[in-house]
Amino acid sequence: MGILNEFKAFAVKGNVVDMAVGIIIGAAFGKIVSSFVGDVVMPPLGLLIGGVDFSDLAITLKAAEGDLPAVVMSYGKFIQTVVDFTIVAFAIFMGVKAINRLKKEEEAAPAAPPAPSAEEKLLSEIRDLLKEKQ
């Protein structure tokens, strides 16, 4: 029973729950970014570079024989994945940069000085009374 209680305490800690939520949101965000790259960014980029689709580039290492399929090294898919990653990484970089800029502006705003504590008020009153007696 001790191990089950320890596991329960571990599983419901805030860090584990926060991590799980982050992973789920990250997976959903990944789908959005993949769609953005594949459906919005890559078509104009492909048009700009002459309609080249890297994913079709491949080298046939061994031709098909009878029922056996050809052995193909699809290096174009790798190049396409690297291009997609670069675009996604840049988009995330720009997003983080914008968030950091907003945080800096928020930190730069001067905070109001804290009100004196009850002890400070009492000590000020005592100081003032002592000054009056002199």
Low-confidence parts: none
**Shape call:** elongated
Report the order of strands and helices. HHEEHH
Structural class: mainly alpha
Distance from N terminus to C terminus (CA atoms, Å) equals 72 Å
Percentage beta strand: 5-15%
Helix content: over 70%
Number of strands: 2
Task: Furnish the topology, listing elements before pairings.
Layout: H1 2-11, H2 14-48, E1 59-62, E2 71-73, H3 75-108, H4 118-133
Antiparallel strand pairs: 1-2
Report on the architecture of this protein.
The structure is a single chain. The longest helix is centred in the first third of the chain and has 35 residues. The chain has a domain of 49 residues. Helix content is 71%, strand content 5%. It has a two-stranded antiparallel ribbon with strand order 1-2. A hairpin with an 8-residue loop joins strand 1 and strand 2. The relative contact order is 0.06. By secondary structure, the chain is mostly helical. It is elongated, with a radius of gyration of 31 Å. It contains four helices and two strands, in the order H-H-E-E-H-H.
